[in-house]
């Protein structure tokens, strides 16, 4: 027996494999063909839920949103001082005269189609970025001005 103990101490015998009966957890064997992923990857490409669809189409019924979508009769009076500065500097390169001419022209168009056509001409002339928030706000104001 002492000889077997001494062999175990010298490391010439392979170590005993842990078993489930002894209470030792055996780590899972890594298979090379398995894809390395984490739990979050399983939920990353989650389909849109019904709740998300309903929420997206639900109209905002707050007083602020209702006032913001009301038709307007005059672009000059509807544009606040902050919006004016944003429009002048982001859309008209700081030229207030060009801004005033454009707002006057947009305000005096006979129809929505005419106003949109003029807005397209301005877009071409000033090379506006279609992702610009100021550009989208101006389009929204023109749409509200000529609301059907």
Can you put this structure into words, describing what you see?
This protein has about 150 residues and is mainly alpha-helical. It contains nine helices and no strands. Helix 7 packs antiparallel against helix 8 (about 110-125). The protein is elongated and about 80 Å long. The mean pLDDT is about 75.
Features of this protein?
mainly alpha; 148 residues
Q: Report low-confidence residues grouped into runs of 5 or more.
A: none
Total number of beta strands: 0
What structural category do the secondary elements indicate?
A: mainly alpha
Helix content: 55-70%
Shape, principal axes of CA atoms: elongated
Mean pLDDT: 76
Percent strand equals: under 5%
State the order of secondary-structure elements, H for helix, E for strand: HHHHHHHHH
Q: What is the rounded Rg?
A: 35 Å
* Terminal-residue CA separation: 100 Å
Major beta-sheet overview: none
The total of helices stands at 9
